[in-house]
Amino acid sequence: MRRREKKDHAKAALSADRSSSIAVNSFVTRCVATGGLVVFAVASAGLSLALLGRPDLDAPSDGHVRLLEAKTDLNGHVVATLQNQELGLKILTLDRCIIGAQYLQEEFQDQAAFTGFALQEAVVFVNRSLRRVLQLGLGAASVPNFLRSRRIQVDVVEVSETVIDMAEKHFGFSSCRRGNTKACQQRFGRTVQGDGREFLFGRDRRYDLVISDVFVGSNPGHLHSLEVFQRIQQQWLWPSGVLMVNFVGFHSGHRSHISRKLARTLRHVFATTRCFRDEDPAEHLDAAANLVCLASDQAFHFNVPTTGDFSNPAPFSSVWVMKHFQQWQVLPAEDGNESIFQDSQNELLEMDSQAEIQAHFWSHAQTLIPSHVWTALGLLCCSESRKN
Ligand SMILES: *[C@@H]1O[C@H](CO)[C@@H](O)[C@H](O)[C@H]1NC(C)=O
Ligand SMILES: *[C@@H]1O[C@H](CO)[C@@H](O)[C@H](O)[C@H]1NC(C)=O
């Protein structure tokens, strides 16, 4: 928290896509300096509006978004790093999905750019000693970088070689695969390229915390099954270990059945499970959002600081998310009627709901990245965002 003491941040909310009635899902947090909320220069227009409420951000004009690098990975996915000057963000995309982002300005780079990452980073306050962490899914390395900067060793498993390369080249991630690998791994942790499920069913090792953050426009079903959670509990976690799953989905209404199934499955495996949304559940009630579930066999609570930056953080900043997320608990245990699906091969996700979530995120991605960039990437807009 060294750097954080110096500043604070507010947020710029991203508007819902105007062509769709689906509301906003995941928000960009915004950096500002403390004492007078001085706005980070490159984003002043967007931010001053954001501080007033939840404005629509106009789609950035052509000059604001620059493609830094794009590559097709071995699985045929288009991975790209873009720079949105107006928002002061570097963005990592996989196909049509934003999988990570980081502030361009170095002094803000340890602050989560999205509320979903701020919520996950709050895991540092769980009442456990976190020494070794396993992260499934790298993205732009926000959470691994944050934990590593707090002297926690984080091993990473990521299926896309290209994502690992771009995280290393553009987002300050150390894969520890070159140079003095041993010293690097000792300090930061190692990086394995491969499928998370194959990795989990291979050789094991014990961790204090396993983080699953594998959303790529959909939540891959093969990593969200009863079998996988049991494997993590039995082979990868210490008895007091914690599994944290970031799942993108709905928390209320009929479309929440998959999220509820996820929570129910975790409760079937672990003694305690609590899920949180990355914004107030009363806001954007019908929107998909990051739902972060923590599960453990031993009770846990969070020791979130209340002084310093945490005494009065700017609304919608990432510290503010950390201070308030415990009030945003969702997916409570159902009263004595846990209908667990018995077949351990059963996967949680159903295709129709996935399409809904994808469309939702595609419309979100469109508000950050203008269409000519998608065209340049060969990822032309689809009709999904205009359905419903
Ligand atoms: C963490 O807090 C819970 C109560 O919330 C307590 O039961 C548990 O023993 C604590 N665990 C550790 C390792 O301190
Ligand atoms: C429990 O689940 C069954 C089957 O879904 C349902 O018929 C029943 O009403 C539920 N009971 C309660 C108390 O919710």
UniProtKB/TrEMBL annotation:
SUPFAM superfamilies: S-adenosyl-L-methionine-dependent methyltransferases. Keywords: Membrane, Polyamine biosynthesis, Transmembrane, Transmembrane helix. The chain crosses the membrane at residues 27-52. NCBIfam families: MFS_SpdSyn. This is Spermidine synthase.
